[in-house]
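INFO batch 0412 | record 1 of 1 | parsing
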Amino acid sequence: ADRGTIEGFVNKGDGTYTAIYTPAKVVGRITLVATATKANAASAPATITINAGPPAKIALAATPETVSSETTSLITATVIDVEGNRVGGLTLNGTAAAGGKVTSFVEDVANFGRYTATYTAPKVDAETPEEITVTIAGSDISAKRTLNLTPIPPKEVRILVVTGTVLKQNSTRPVAGVNVTVTVNGKPSQTVQTPENGLYSITVFEPLGVAARTGDLVS
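INFO prediction complete | emitting C-alpha cells
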C-alpha cells in the first residue's frame, strides 16, 4: 500500500544525509530504512508515528477491577482523536490516590494507540476505593478509573468436616440412599446421600462458634 514518498538524500558533506519524507493518508507506525549502497549495503531503520489528529480522549480499562492488597491489575489506556482515530507515539503518566503504584505506560506494538501499565495495590485492612488518573504528558487531557481494594485473603480457612456412617437400627449393616444434613449453630449444610457403604462426609466452611475437635465424640 502507498506509504508516502521520500525525496532524494542530500549529502551535507559532514557524514550526514538528509531527505524529506511525505506520508500518505495513513495512520499508524511507518518504518523507514536507509541503505548505504557503497558501504557494503549497510542500512538502518527509523520508525515514525503518523496520527490523523491530536489526542482528544482517553478510554481507560482495568483488569481486574477488584484488587487484593499488594497484588496487581493491568491498566489499559486507548487514546483517540475527535474523529475516533487512535493516536500513537504519546507519553502517558499514571497516578494512584490511595497509595498504589503505577508503572510507566508502554505503547502496545500490536495495537496502535493503546498503552498499558501495571498497577500495584498497597496493603489495606478494609475495602477501599482507589482512583487511577492517567494524563497525556504535555496536555490537560486525562481520564480516571476507580478500583476496589480488598484486604489480603486469609491464608487459613476454617472448615468443619463431619463424617459418619448410617447403619440399620440395632445392626451393623450400612444403609444406602439416606439423605444426611448437618446443622451447625442452627444453619443446615448441604445435603448428601449415602452410598452403599452408608458413609457420608460433609464439609462446612467458616463455621461460627465452637465446633467439635477431631476425636472429640462428646462435642
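INFO post-check: The mean pLDDT is 84.
INFO record closed
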